[in-house]
Design brief:
With 144 residues, this protein is α/β, with parallel strands linked by helices. It has one domain (2-143). 55% of the residues lie in helices and 11% in strands. The protein is built from 5 helices and 4 strands. The protein has helices at 19-29, 45-58, 74-84, 96-108, 114-143, and strands spanning 2-3, 36-39, 64-68, 90-94. Helix 3 (74-84) links the parallel strand 3 (64-68) and strand 4 (90-94). The longest helix is centred in the last third of the chain and has 30 residues, at 114-143. Residues 4-10 have low confidence and may be disordered.
Amino acid sequence: MICWSKCWRPATRAADAETTARSLEQLYEAGVRPDWWKLPPLTGQEAWSRVGAVIARHDPHCRGVLLLGLEAEEPVLEASFAVAARFPVCKGFAVGRSIFGAAAREWFAGRAPDDDVVTDVAARYARLISLWERARSSACAATA
């Protein structure tokens, strides 16, 4: 799995609808062919269309894209899911810190007992799964 995240494109660097697709194009030209891509939320439909086209052109065996959360809050993730779910190349999400970050900070600081952390992480994960499923269902209904 290849993760193209803020470590490759710092948040201070400008990005447009072509940035990620252009980067993937360069990686494919260098011979990189991952099973999965982990990508940050893209700027919109045009960016997702371009990414899907690059992957389809270079690697028909690529399984797709998992959307990174980059420790975003649920409303931000919900908005990015709503865009990404419209594109078949995006298969789901990989948002670890968005799920456990706050709970882990509380636990390490001694402010949350184990059971509360487990409950919080499970609830966050369940909500995000629900948000993704809702976004995917809406996207499928819109194309039917």
